[in-house]
Amino acid sequence: MKIMELDLNKNYSETQSYRDEVWEELNGRIEIVDKMLDQNEALIRQVKMNHASKIPDNLVKNVALINEININISKISSIYGDISVSFKNIVRRPKTKSKNRTAMVNDDLVGSTMKHQ
Fold this sequence. Notes:
The protein contains 3 helices and no strands. It has helices at residues 2-53, 56-92, 98-110.
């Protein structure tokens, strides 16, 4: 009985550690998205102010601001797509040793995070 209990505790500990790592990575990506959404909010406020001013130079500046908003939206969409694919891959993956799963999680979740920053 004692050996079996140790194995169950070890498996639980490895599983919990794995889950913690997955959530940490997901939260990191969500924080990136959150920052981009905050930036877009500020950009949209600026576009509205420029538009309300009706000053030609400000209206010209809106082109660049709107372009930046669109770029951010594309990045956000890509990050959410990556999260979706990564999550699907993690769920479908057969159970393996914790270290191997951790490496695979990092490949799935971290690999594309840097390209979105």
